[in-house]
């Protein structure tokens, strides 16, 4: 492109690694030339590929008196988690429900009182979902957008119900069976052996005595971090 200009001009010579500016002093029209070295192209930048793997910890059936101890371990390790709350328990422990949200964790609807939703009518299934949603929202201050079926049990009717409320189902692929109360080392071992990239781990902070789960959590997090895992929300 040529633009009338009485004065100096500058030729810009662009090379892959630098720009050269050559000035001329004759009064001529301004000629802006962008010249590339023949056949040369700027070197492509390599996009770094993440070297880490992710895993999500989830806790069912709470909140409960064991929830604060679990929150303390998560906070110490700066690990986020997803808490699948029962509506009745959220209503019973609203302070804990709010604390879970305040500390940066995710809440999930786990039904009102842990019924097997594959055995329920459409009306009853809706009652479980909507009732729990209201209880959790009132207690925690947020409305869950994900749903975990009690026992992992659901039929077409139950799945249609949660989809109708704009929710998605949260499943899992690693279950250390902590609800059967094995010792802490067994819980940790089962999790570490079973986890893969993007695994979702099923644990419990409610529904019974969860002391072994609390004890296992610290060693579990340490072991997974040593193996290069990063913790994410489900």
Task: Describe the model.
With 234 residues, the protein is of the alpha/beta class. The protein has helices at residues 67-77, 87-92, 94-102, 122-140, 156-164, 184-194, 211-226, and strands spanning 2-3, 9-15, 18-24, 30-31, 34-36, 53-60, 82-85, 106-109, 146-147, 168-169, 199-204, 229-231. Strands 6, 7, 8, 11 and 12 form a 5-stranded parallel β-sheet that branches. Strands 3-2-5 form a 3-stranded mixed β-sheet, with no helix packed on it. Strands 1-4 form a two-stranded antiparallel ribbon. α1 runs parallel beside α7 (211-226) and α6 packs parallel to α7 (211-226). The longest helix is centred in the middle third of the chain and has 19 residues, at 122-140. It is globular, with a radius of gyration of 29 Å.
Number of helices: 7
**DSSP strand tally:** 12
Main sheet, how many strands, which sense, barrel? 5 strands, parallel
List the helices and strands in order: EEEEEEHEHHEHEHEHEHE
Strand-residue proportion? 15-25%
Indicate the radius of gyration in whole angstroms.
29 Å
């Amino acid at each position: 492109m040529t633009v009338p200009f009485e004065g100096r001009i500058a030729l810009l010579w662009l090379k892959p690694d630098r720009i050269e500016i050559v000035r001329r002093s004759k009064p001529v029209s301004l000629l802006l030339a962008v010249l590339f070295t023949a056949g040369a192209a700027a070197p492509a930048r390599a996009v770094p590929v993440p070297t880490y793997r992710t895993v999500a910890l989830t806790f069912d059936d709470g909140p409960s008196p064991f929830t604060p101890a679990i929150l303390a371990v998560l906070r110490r390790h700066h690990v986020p988690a997803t808490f699948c709350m029962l509506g009745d328990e959220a209503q019973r422990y609203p302070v804990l429900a709010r604390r879970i949200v305040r500390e940066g964790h995710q809440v999930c609807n786990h039904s009102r009182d842990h019924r097997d939703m594959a055995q329920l009518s459409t009306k009853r299934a809706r009652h479980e979902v909507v009732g729990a949603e209201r209880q959790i929202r009132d207690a925690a201050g947020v409305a869950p957008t994900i749903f975990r079926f009690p026992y992992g049990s659901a039929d077409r009717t139950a799945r249609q119900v949660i989809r109708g409320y704009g929710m998605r189902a949260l499943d899992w692929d690693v279950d250390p069976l902590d609800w059967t109360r094995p010792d802490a080392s067994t819980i940790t071992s089962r999790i570490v052996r079973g986890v893969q990239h993007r695994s979702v781990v099923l644990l419990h902070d409610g529904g019974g005595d969860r002391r072994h789960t609390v004890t296992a959590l610290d060693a579990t997090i340490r072991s997974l971090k040593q193996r290069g895992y990063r913790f994410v929300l489900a």
